[in-house]
Write a structure and sequence with these properties.
Helix content is 14%, strand content 17%. The protein is α+β, with helices and mostly antiparallel strands and 72 residues long. The chain has a single domain, classed as Alpha-Beta Plaits (2-Layer Sandwich), CATH 3.30.70.20. The strands form two sheets. The protein has a two-stranded antiparallel sheet with strand order 1-4. The chain has a two-stranded antiparallel ribbon with strand order 2-3. The longest helix is centred in the middle third of the chain and has 5 residues. It is globular and about 30 Å long. The N and C termini lie far apart (24 Å). It binds iron/sulfur cluster (SF4) (2 copies).
Length: 72
């Protein structure tokens, strides 16, 4: 089965790796496996899978993530 996809390159998700403390919460709460955690930092591996739900933003303790729901 093909995973549900959204429009390409329109997600407003942004990650500031300098602020990331590597807690891994974003990867845990994201329902679409958008994040990976490598070498103590989060990374976006699948931007187009982001549905802008905001769960990662709400759980990130260091405000390293931004998303603006409804734009994409
Ligand atoms: S906004 Fe939602 S879908 Fe997008 S990366 Fe964050 S948790 Fe995942
Ligand atoms: S929740 Fe925030 S601080 Fe934690 S790994 Fe993700 S981006 Fe980094």
């Amino acid at each position: 089965m093909t995973a549900l996809r959204y429009l390409k390159q329109v997600s407003t998700l942004r990650l500031n790796e300098d602020l990331c403390i590597g807690c891994g919460l974003c990867a845990q709460v994201c329902p679409h496996q958008v994040f990976t955690l490598e070498n103590g930092k989060a990374g976006i591996i699948d931007l187009d899978a982001c549905m802008e739900c905001g769960a990662c933003v709400n759980n990130c303790p260091s405000k390293a993530i931004e998303v603006h729901p409804g734009v994409g």
